[in-house]
Amino acid sequence: MTIKACVQKVGVSHVSRRHALALIGASGALTATPATRADDSTNYGEGVRGVDLLVGADSGKAVEEGDTVKVRLKGRLMAKNGWVFLDDGLADNDRVFTVGRDGKDVIRGLEVALLGMRAGGVRRVILPPPVSYTQPGQEPQPSDGAFKRRLESTIFNPTRLANGEGDTLATTMFDVELVRILTP
Questions:
Q1: What totals of helices (H) and strands (E) does the chain contain, helices first?
Q2: Could you write out the three-class secondary structure of 42-70?
Q3: Strand 122-127 to strand 42-45: parallel, antiparallel, or no bridges (unpaired)?
Q4: What sign has the CA pseudo-torsion 96, 180, 63, 94?
Q5: Which helix (H) or strand (E) holds 172?
Q6: pTM score, two decimals?
Q7: Range in 12-21, 42-51, 108-117, 149-158 the model is least confident about
């Protein structure tokens, strides 16, 4: 149901955006779209699951192992209730790396998520701990020092690791925008 339909259903002539969104929620009209339901997600391999929010250009080359790419990322840490630790869109900051180079510089899950993407595409992926941050200093890192410390102190917290919580601490969610493929 659209906002306009909810406003008409209530029978008022003007409603602010905030109130309209509240109306939609109150009317029970918010339902998952097919692209956001968990059963419609794609398994990209190695435990990486996600959905394409925006499909890239049909005429372009798809990312393959060994390609150098330029991306924008938005990263959230699930152990901190989706805390956004990285947002390249706010800083207008593009990151460049080679997919599948050696698996040490960039977390493996991002490399897996990029495979098959085309320029202009945006993919939301969930990375389980084995393909997320497995050692301190892996890229991508927040530019803010406090965010970097909070990220690493959560993922590599010795007390929580000793308590057996290590299998959930590094679960991350990324929105990956492929700006372009730099290799021909």
A1: 7, 7
A2: EEEECCEEEEEEECCCCCCCECCCCCEEE
A3: unpaired
A4: positive
A5: strand 172-181
A6: 0.74
A7: 12-21
Q: Which two tokens stand for residue 19?
A: 């109130």
Closest CA to 78 of 25, 155, 23, 159: 155
Contact 144, 92 (CB under 8 A): no
Please return the burial class of 87, using the count of CB atoms within 10 Å of its CB with bins 0-12, 13-18 and 19+.
middle
Per-residue pLDDT band for 112 (boundaries 50, 70, 90) equals very high
pLDDT at residue 13 greater than cutoff 80: no
Average pLDDT of the residues in 14-27: 48
Phi, psi dihedral angles at 170 (to 5 degrees): -95, 10
CA–CA distance, 38 with 42 (Å, rounded to integer) = 9
